[in-house]
């Protein structure tokens, strides 16, 4: 990609979500909208851009086949799933597959063929998106009013929606950006600032479990770093993390950010936890055929009513109801390999901490079964957050201007 197109992609990935699209009249998250509007504009631009680069011979098909096998596998498997859904008239899952899986694969192919110098300069916009989203989340929480969102979301306590719409999707994307920026930076005070902002943001979104995922990822990163860093740096990190813990504890105890933690003294009081248990109980109520090959929308609604489930709070259960357990397992493996490839390109030492954070946070909500742009954000971060000394020379042969 050239500089201008890369900037357009970065803006679409990091700033243009359902909140902004609804404001301009593009009702992306409206279940009654035309299928054209259910697909994010980024998908259309990705397809057109890649097609133009291929027919103009700026990107060679052989280069894609040789270097982007994971992305091609994700696209091919998604097409097979789309055909399966169409044959069995389960069209509700189509836009999710395009936005959440096919589009990230296309974006990754385009980023692979983009000069690394362009991507490195583009890293500033990732910091901008992170701090803008953090700032919006904090202001919304303090004001108890959504600034960008026009959608009514019912929760027992107010939860910020900031740039990325639904609070749980926000928490997932912020956790991913936060852990990558934490690992990317070498200066301890910047690491601690990023960690504090990430934890505060997810508390504003009311995503208690996300804070555990972030802390777990940071803990794994600390353990890995302790084998390569000097002892003095390790001790400073311990003191710094302890300070962040104390600050975080004070914030939870003394501000409204800790409402969802402090008000849930038992499982009986925690409706969100009860909803997750009900979601998992749906698997027990499914017939063997439904478990293996999925269900229609009518059957899914009937099962939710039977188990008393209002919202399926687990992406894998949503997948199973749509595709069946066999396709769902394959889909999980495809996404896991895709994420691992992106993270390894960013930093091999980040593989375990980043994967743990993303998968843990994703496991406690259904964002990976929605039109989330998590994987697009992940690809952009992993290709852009590369230190100049680590630029891979071999990629220069595949870059386009």
From TrEMBL:
<feature type="transmembrane region" description="Helical">
    <location>
        <begin position="238"/>
        <end position="257"/>
    </location>
</feature>
<protein>
    <submittedName>
        <fullName>Uncharacterized protein</fullName>
    </submittedName>
</protein>
<feature type="transmembrane region" description="Helical">
    <location>
        <begin position="163"/>
        <end position="185"/>
    </location>
</feature>
<keyword id="KW-0812">Transmembrane</keyword>
<feature type="transmembrane region" description="Helical">
    <location>
        <begin position="125"/>
        <end position="143"/>
    </location>
</feature>
<feature type="transmembrane region" description="Helical">
    <location>
        <begin position="316"/>
        <end position="340"/>
    </location>
</feature>
<feature type="transmembrane region" description="Helical">
    <location>
        <begin position="68"/>
        <end position="87"/>
    </location>
</feature>
<keyword id="KW-1133">Transmembrane helix</keyword>
<feature type="transmembrane region" description="Helical">
    <location>
        <begin position="93"/>
        <end position="113"/>
    </location>
</feature>
<feature type="transmembrane region" description="Helical">
    <location>
        <begin position="35"/>
        <end position="56"/>
    </location>
</feature>
<dbReference type="InterPro" id="IPR048041">
    <property type="entry name" value="VpsF-like"/>
</dbReference>
<keyword id="KW-0472">Membrane</keyword>
<feature type="transmembrane region" description="Helical">
    <location>
        <begin position="192"/>
        <end position="218"/>
    </location>
</feature>
<feature type="transmembrane region" description="Helical">
    <location>
        <begin position="346"/>
        <end position="364"/>
    </location>
</feature>
């Amino acid at each position: 990609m050239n500089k201008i197109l890369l900037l357009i992609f970065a803006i679409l990935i990091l700033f243009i979500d359902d909140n902004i699209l609804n404001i301009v009249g593009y009702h992306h998250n409206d279940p009654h909208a035309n299928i054209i509007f259910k697909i994010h504009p980024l998908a259309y631009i990705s397809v057109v851009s890649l097609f133009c680069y291929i027919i103009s011979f700026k990107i060679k098909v052989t280069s894609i086949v040789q270097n982007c096998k994971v992305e091609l596998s994700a696209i091919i498997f998604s097409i097979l799933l789309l055909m399966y859904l169409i044959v069995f008239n389960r069209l509700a899952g189509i836009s999710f597959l395009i936005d959440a899986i096919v589009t990230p694969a296309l974006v990754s192919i385009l980023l692979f063929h983009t000069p690394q110098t362009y991507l490195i300069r583009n890293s500033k916009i990732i910091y901008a998106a992170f701090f803008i989203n953090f700032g919006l989340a904090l202001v919304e929480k303090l004001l108890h009013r959504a600034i960008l969102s026009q959608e009514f979301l019912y929760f027992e306590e107010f939860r910020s929606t900031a740039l990325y719409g639904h609070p749980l999707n926000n928490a997932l994307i912020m956790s991913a950006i936060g852990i990558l920026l934490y690992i990317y930076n070498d200066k301890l005070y910047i690491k601690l600032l990023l960690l504090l902002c990430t934890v505060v943001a997810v508390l504003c979104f009311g995503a208690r479990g996300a804070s555990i995922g972030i802390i777990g990822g940071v803990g794994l990163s600390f353990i890995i770093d302790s084998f390569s860093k000097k002892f003095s740096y390790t001790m400073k990190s311990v003191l710094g993390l302890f300070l962040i813990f104390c600050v975080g504890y004070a914030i939870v105890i003394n501000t409204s950010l800790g409402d969802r933690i402090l008000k849930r003294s038992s499982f009986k009081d925690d409706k969100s936890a009860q909803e997750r248990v009900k979601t998992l109980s749906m698997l027990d109520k499914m017939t063997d055929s439904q478990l293996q090959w999925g269900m229609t929308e009518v059957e899914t609604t009937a099962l939710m009513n039977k188990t008393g489930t209002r919202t399926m709070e687990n992406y894998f259960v949503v997948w199973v109801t749509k595709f069946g357990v066999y396709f769902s397992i394959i889909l999980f493996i495809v996404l896991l390999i895709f994420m691992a490839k992106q993270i390894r390109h960013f930093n091999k030492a980040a593989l375990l901490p980043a994967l743990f954070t993303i998968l843990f946070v994703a496991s406690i909500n259904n964002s990976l079964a929605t039109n989330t742009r998590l994987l697009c954000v992940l690809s952009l971060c992993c290709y852009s957050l590369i230190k100049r000394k680590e630029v891979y020379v071999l990629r220069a042969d595949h870059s386009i201007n």
